[in-house]
Amino acid sequence: MRAVVQRVREAQVAVAGELVGAIGHGLCVLVGVAAGDSTAEAELLSRKVVALRVFDDDAGQMNRSLDDVGGALLVVSQFTLHADCRRGRRPSFTGAAPAPLARALYEHFVGTARAMGTTVETGRFQAHMTLALVNDGPVTLLLDTAELRAA
Prior knowledge:
The protein is of the alpha/beta class. It has a single domain (about 1-140), classed as 3-Layer(bba) Sandwich (D-tyrosyl-trna(Tyr) Deacylase, Chain: A), CATH 3.50.80.10. It has helices at about 40-50, 65-70, 100-115, 145-150, and strands at about 1-15, 20-25, 25-30, 55, 60-65, 70-75, 120, 130-145. Strands 1, 2, 3, 6, 7 and 8 form a six-stranded mixed sheet that branches. The chain has a two-stranded antiparallel sheet with strand order 4-5. Helix 1 crosses helix 3 (about 100-115).
């Protein structure tokens, strides 16, 4: 699984003009599921995101987690994170998980974060969404469970 994590002042996601999820201070997380992923990757990635210390302490150092600052998550599925752009000009998405598996692991990611006591808003799986956010910092991180497991 892969995630693009952005520290935000606010973020919202809409489908066909209807607001389906919104947060204030927190993290906007774009999540992509790979064909070989399992619940182990969903749990690892969710726990890592929730525990990231990317919020400033009183000294201006990134030492606080989402829980420490009372922040929330906005989680949006994004299969294009597994696009292969190495050949030609059109991305290939063969590395992305099929929709049923991707949905299950996306929901497992969200459920794991909620079980940790985190406030979570979401987009709508497989919908065409518009996402608006105000990145704070800017702080943007790329996470990949293949790299997290290797560390």
